Amino acid sequence: MRKIIVPIVFALLLIGNSLSAQNSVALFSYSIFDNPQETPYVETYVSFNAWHFKFIPTNDGKYQATIEMTVIATRDDSIAYAKRYNLQSPAIDNPENNMFSFLDVCRFALSNGIYNLQIIMKDKNADTDPIEINQNVVVYFPKDKPSISSLQIIASVKPTEKENMISRNGYDMEPYVDSYIPKDVDLLNFYYEIYNATDAIKENDTFLTVAYIEVEETGKRLNSTLRGERTVSKPIISKYSTLDISQLPSGNYNLVVELRTRNNETFGSRKYTFQRSNPNVQLSTDDLFAYGGTFVTDIAEKDLDYYIQTLYATASSKEKDFIFGEASTASLDEKQAFFYKFWLARSDNPKAEWFKYRKWVEYVDKHFTKGNVKGYLSDRGRVYLQYGPPKYVLDEKNKVSTRNFQEIGHIHYLPYQMWFYDYIPGDNPKRAFVFFDQFRSGNYYLLHSNAKGETQDMFWERRLSNNQLEENIQAEAGIQFERGY
Asked: Is 135 in contact with 46 (CB distance < 8 Å)?
C-alpha cells in the first residue's frame, strides 16, 4: 500500500452520520476503480482536522502530529487486506497554528465481492480513544460487459510535478472528501473511468456519455444540468468533467453518469449522492414534485406520517435524518416526494414494493406491539421489516435443558425466540437472531445474532440462562443456534 499526505483546506461541514464541523475529527470517503489486466482496487480518503491532534516537537525544531492508521478489509469473516502504518501531519512552526486539514490517501487491491472496511485511527501523542470507521464496500467489475468506476468528486486540479497517489493523466486531482457542497462552490468537478466499452460499442466507434443531476427525493432529472459528450470507444476510458451548480438550490441530489448508444439506449450508469446548500435559489414546482398521480397522493397525510416512521428499519443514514428530523416540519408535498423516492430507489415498481412492505408493517404491529410501543419499533419488528419474514422461528417459553450440568443441575432458560434465515442480501448464508424476554413481560429484545452489523454477544447463552452457565460453556440453546433449529 502506498500513501500520501496532502495539506488541504475544506469547507468542513458534515451531514449524515458525521458530526458538526467544529466537533468532527475526520471526514471519510472512498472510490472503487478497476484494473482490467489485474485486480480492482479501493482508494480511501480521510481528511483530518489538525486541531484535534497533539503536535509535538521534531528534531528540526518544528511540530508534527502522528496518527496510527489501521486498515482492515474483511470478506466472509476472513481478512482480505490489513495494514498498519503511521501517518504524519505536515510539520508546522507553531503548534497553535493548527487550523488546517491534511489528507491521507490509501490504495489497495480487492477482488470482486462484498467487504466490511474498517479504519481505526489513533493519536499517538495523546491519551485519547481511537476513532473507528466501518463501511460496507461492494466491488463489482464484470469482465464481459461495460462498467463505470466510482464518481470521484474533485476539489482541485493542477499539473503533476512528481507522480503520486492523486496523479491521473498528468494532473494531480485532489479528492473532495465530503458529500456536502456549500453555496460558494459553483462547479461540480468529477472524475471517473469506463471499462470494457468495446463489449458494447465497436472500438474507435463513438458513444455518448451523459452527466446530469437528479433530485434524490423524486428521481426527477434537472435538464438544466444535462451535459453530453461524444466519446471514442476503448477498453479503458478516463473522463474528467464539470457541471455548473451555481443555480442548484439547497437539497439532496444524485450526480448521474450514463453511457448511451447512438440510438440513445443506456448500457451503463453510476450515481453519487450529495447534499447542496444554496438557500437563495429555488427549484421550480415541476422539478420538486414529479410524483403527481402516483400511489403516494392517495395516502392521507396522517397515515403518511406514520408510514414514514416505519421506514427507519431499511432507511439509509440520510433517509433517517429526514424520518427523525425534517419529517416533523416538512410540508405534505415534501413528505410525498420523500416517500415516493424512497420506494423508487428500491424497485422499478415502487407501488408494489411499498404494498409488500405495508403488509409486513401490519404484521409486526399486530404481533409485536406491547402497550404504547408499536410493533415496528420493537427489536423483532425492526428485524422483520429489515430482512423480511424468517424461514423458521423457534419459540421457547419455558426451556429446560435435558441433561444435568455438574453442580448446577438442569439449565432453566428465560423465554426466547430464535429466528433463522437462509439468506440475507450482502451476508453469508444461514443467519440467526436470538430474542429474549429478560423480565418475562412479553417484551422480547435482540440478544445476539451472527448477521453482519447486528448485536453480537459472545456470552449470550450465559445471559439467556440467567447467569447459570459459566462463560464459554455451550449448552442446548447454543447448539440450537449453531445447527439452525
From this structure: no
